[in-house]
Structure formats: C-alpha cells, structure tokens
Amino acid sequence: MLRNFTLDDATPLIQYDSSWVDGYNSPADSEMPRYQGRSFHVTNTNGATANVTFHGTAIYLYGAKRVNHGYYRVAVDDEPSLSMSGRPLAGAPEKFQSLLFSREGLTNGEHTLRLENIYEDNEKIWLDVDFIVITREVDIATEVQSTIATHNQFKYSRQWSEQNVSGYRNSTARVTSISGETATLNFQGPEILVYGGVGPDFGTFKVQVDSRQPVVLNATRGMTHPPLTLFATSGLGDGQHTLTITNLESGKFFALDYAEYTSHTTNRGGLNASVIGGIVGGVAAALLFLAIIGWYFIRGRKRAQDRSWDSSHSPILADPQWDDNVQVTPYVDTPSHPPLGHVDARPVIHNAHVATAGMTRKTDTLVAPFPTLRSGESSYGRVSQRGLSPLNGQTETLAQEFDAGAAMTLPPLYDHVFSSQSRPRHRDVGGSGQI
Questions:
Q1: Which spans are transmembrane here (predicted)?
Q2: Whose CA is closest to 226, among 35, 419, 428?
Q3: 271: which of 47, 79, 116, 275 fits an S-S bond (Cβ 3.0–4.6 Å)?
Q4: Distant-in-sequence, close-in-space partners of 416: CB < 8 Å, separation ≥ 6
C-alpha cells in the first residue's frame, strides 16, 4: 500500500545550510501568500545546499519559478545530478507551488535528496523551497488506522512542563529547555510522525526508534511556526516499538504537540480463518460435483448423436463411381493483406510533451492572483553578489530549455498525511476529541 505525506519547508527533516532564510509571513515579499501555508525557505548564495533524508519510494520537490531565480541542481543518493532552470518559460507568468523535481521508482528504503543553488547571472540568483511530498510503501494486509497519541501519552523525565500555546492540539504543549530531558512513547505499527514547534528559541534534539541509529535534528528556524512535522519514519514492521526524544540544548526549547502512528486492525465484520476455509472447501466440492454431472450429461448426448448419424446416412459404396467430366480449378493465393514491408500510410508522430495545466495536486491552495515581478527585479531586497560562478554555456542551454514542471509527473493522490494544521480525522488515544 502506498501513502503520501507532505513536509513543510520549515520541518527539521530538511537540513539547510546557514545561507537560507525563513520566509514565513515575510513582509519583504508581496507574493508570500502564494506559497503553501504562507511559508518558504529562500537563498541567494551560490552553492547553497539543502538536504532531506527520507524513507520511501518517491519524492517530489516544490518551489516557485520566478524571473529572478537562477539554476539549481538536484541529486538523489549517488545518482548523477540534474541541472534545471528556476525561472518560468519565456513569456510565461511566474509559477508558485510548482514542481521543481521528482524522482520515482526508488527502492522502499532510506534515500537522501540534495539541492544546490547555482547563479545564472548577477540578477538571477534566487532559489526557494515550498514543500516536499514523499511516497512511502506500507506493508499492510489488513485495515489501516491512524492513531493520535497526545503529549499526555508520552512518559517524561523530570523537567518538563505543560504550557498553554495557541495553535497546538487542545492549545497545550509539553515543553522542556533542559539538555538531556527525554520523552518516550510506546506504539504499535510500521510508521510514526511526531509534531511540534520550530522557531528562533528552539534547538537541536535527538530521536531514536528501538535500537535503530539515532537521528539528530535542528528545530531552530528564523520564525516561529505553527506545529509541524518534527520527525517521520516508516518501514518499522508491524509490532511494538519505542520512540525516544531527547532535548540536546539547555536554554533552547523543545515543544511536543502530539504523535501520529499507523496501526493495524482486523477487517471489520471479517471472517476468521476456519470459517473462510470451510467456505472455500464447500465451494470446491460443489464445483467438483457439477463437473461430474456435466460430464455424464455431455457423454449421454454424444452417444445419442452417434446413433442418429448412423441411421440417417447411407453406407459408402464399395465401388464408387467418379464423374470424369468435372473440371477442377487450381487454387490461386490472393492475400487480402499487403505484403510484408509495405507501407501505405504516413507515420504517426507522437508529441513527447504532456500538458499538465489541467492537473490539480492535493496540496494546491487556492489564492487570488497577484502581480508578478518585472524582469530583473528582486522581491527579496539587495544582496551581495559574492561567489558569482555561472554555469558554462552548454549546461546553461540545457537548463534553460528544461522545464521540470512540464516533463516530470506529479505525485499520485494516495492516502495523504499533511504536516500542516488541516489534517484528516484520526482515532484519538487519550485525547479530548478528534481532528
């Protein structure tokens, strides 16, 4: 079973270098509302990188195509990197929440995507990230149920406090600012996502599932965001697991909202194995009985037909008489199909480009149209032009002609898990309601 989940640009699972800026609700860009959740991460540094390590079979990277954007490179694992243009096609309007890169058909395991900004010239220097969609495979033969574990279901070390925080589930969060403090959750199922806070006052933390290698993540962001995905993993196998979160910085906060894990349930109204086996055996016996009856019936009819044939036809003469005046015309082969290799029509030429304008992604948001920037104008303000290193002419031509949004496929709409506040309804364990 395949499922999607969306990562917001501010998630700690995306690791940016120090040159990236948090654009959440930024008044510096009039086009900010056109990004999903009014949030994006942006850089104008040549060679700036962002990485995301994920477990799944496909990944889709979204951002904006704007006139002041340059080139970018993307690579997955050890595959060759692809260079692409971050600008819209000539004469086309700027595009937001646009597919920048996709990679499908990966083995269902751990992979790493690496994104790099590349200057095109002195003005086309920007690159931004809006959100990422990841497809993962869940090995589930029974009914799937997502379970919400509120922060009350975790077991905490001593120095945690419960605080009232707007935007969190039930307006409460479990918070610590002491290094080494832990929160532990026991759960059953192959995957889990943890939600919480990020912002300037948040720091690094460590997450470990069972005896797996621990992961260190950084919740420090330029702006304080609503709760989003802090950690996600899948492929754990159906069974009991233990998740442990450790705050790593004293004086920096870790704020836990809740966790969501996929559990297995038996089929509702389903039959047990013994009943199913009895039904299958009975059907097989009935089919065998019908086959025997049918065989006897067909055999009886065959014998009757043989007797009828024998009585209605005269026996063949022992000395047949031939008519010598009958002329036989030889057979002449006149095939109705043309000979092999004949071509009687013009070849059909198929267009290699597939229009995607009419396709709608599940993560699209409806916004009012906004005026676009004039060519060469930057919505991010004045910046230093240090480190200018444009691509060579051959690579530049390739990047200019390639439009990722037109050539790559959008993610199929599998069952979806969102990292924003608008999420589907789930079963709640120990909470006070459903979302």
A1: 275-298
A2: 419
A3: 275
A4: 3, 4, 5, 6, 362, 424
Distance separating alpha carbons of residues 218 and 248, to the nearest angstrom:
10
**What one-character-per-residue DSSP string does 48-102 give?**
-EEEEEEEESEEEEEEEE-TTB-EEEEEETTSPPEEEE-SPPTTPPPEEEEEEEE
Q: For residues 317 and 25, which has the higher predicted lDDT (pLDDT)?
A: 25
CB 373 within 8 A of CB 67: yes
pLDDT reading at 15 higher than 70: yes
Of 411, 412, 435, give the one whose Cα is nearest residue 131. 411
- Give residue 232's pLDDT band: very low, low, confident or very high (50, 70, 90): very high
> In angstroms, rounded to a whole number, what is the distance separating the alpha carbons of residues 54 and 215?
12
For residue 373, pLDDT over 80 is answered with: no
d(CA 153, CA 115): 37
Could you tell me how far CA 150 lies from the centroid of its own chain? 26
